[in-house]
User: What shape does this take?
Amino acid sequence: MLIRTATTTRTPGRLFPGASTDSLSAAMELMGACISYVRNFEIYGEGEPTEYLYKVVSGTVRSCKLLDDGRRQVTAFHMPGEIFGLEVGDTHSFSAEAIADSTIIVVKRSAILGLAARDVEIAHQLWTLTARELQRVQDHMLILGCMGAKEKVAAFLLQFSKRCSDSNEIKLPMSRQDIADYLGLTMETVSRTMNQLEHDATITLPTSRRIVLRNRAALKRLNA
Amino acid sequence: MLIRTATTTRTPGRLFPGASTDSLSAAMELMGACISYVRNFEIYGEGEPTEYLYKVVSGTVRSCKLLDDGRRQVTAFHMPGEIFGLEVGDTHSFSAEAIADSTIIVVKRSAILGLAARDVEIAHQLWTLTARELQRVQDHMLILGCMGAKEKVAAFLLQFSKRCSDSNEIKLPMSRQDIADYLGLTMETVSRTMNQLEHDATITLPTSRRIVLRNRAALKRLNA
DNA sequence: CGATCGCTTGATTCCGATCAACAGGAGTGG
DNA sequence: CCACTCCTGTTGATCGGAATCAAGCGATCG
Assistant: This one.
């Protein structure tokens, strides 16, 4: 088990990067505390009570499910501005861990639900959030169930580049192992596939965590 | 494209099997029309407007996503009593087809959303429904990403037996191909794996569509 | 009866997993 | 500064499981 090295501070207004203008997000920034998590710290675990709602300020978080023999499925990466930890049941059905040192706004779930009971707009946003996540996860299922290694990696790269920057240069916050567990592959296969893509002049790898997309069309073609 | 051979009739009260007591379900039965779909009929397609909400009365429905080269991921099977077709966006992100001849209650989405705007209880149920689906899909991701063929088939059998009957005898409404596309395998592998399970005395296959679970413990062990 | 469809079974291939060694950086401490 | 370890990522060799290709089988139906 990891040690909680959380630095709690009151949130200073709405000065956060990635802050969206919608009212739920705004409410979270007003009501929440800002906490720092060190790399690899477990934010919550599978089966723990769903006490809080979270919004990434900086850093990156992974959600995952574990099989008791250690096999792992990463279900999502959460980037700055995104909300996670929202579930209807009273216990989390998966765990969340900081991939890099991260700062995260944390709000009592009961406070948000209280808001939603009075404010239809907030309630609707909670639903929308869940529904968007559902759609994202269903796209992920298509990757896991239908695609080969090359297609999976290509899909991941396109998806990721769309999410954080629109530039062709990607800075990956997660390890090869995280990517592998996200795609249902092994670390070795992810590594090999990326180097192969570099050899095909589809991407460039200045360092292992930085990727330049040189040929988006080729990547999309792999996706079909 | 398939031919719509729908027999529309007004719904006679709340006499349907699988009718749940919750108010959303009840409202759908009151407001909806009951339509018959023949086997393999497409109820709606990917990209079509989300005009309706559906509730299975009898038969079974599959939801799936297609890759343009024909590869298919079945994302869910919908059994009697279950609601499907609920999405936030204005177009469907996947298609739905009747696996067997089915009768389905169909309700204008706008009517339900209208209800939800006035009735907080209904709104909450819409959210709950989406969240439950999200949880189900995340469990499905674990199957697709982490498991081998044997484990996948075992997981499917246990999951299915829990859903429809608690008896050990299962009557499958779907083909081997449907199961394969649900599990991210080929038809041949599903067939082989099932026969292997029969050889191990874990299950019995009186016919290809009827399965008797003789050793649930062994199936659960495969799941880990 | 032939025909089609869903399923099974066999032979072979191939992709990705596995096992293993190694390389490169970052951080630490002498 | 170097020597050291730890960690992540790369690369190679081999193996195995599931896909693929192909044939056969048994229902159901016109």
Notes: Residues 175-177, 187-188, 191-192, 195, 208 of chain B lie near DNA strand C (CB under 10 Å from a C1').
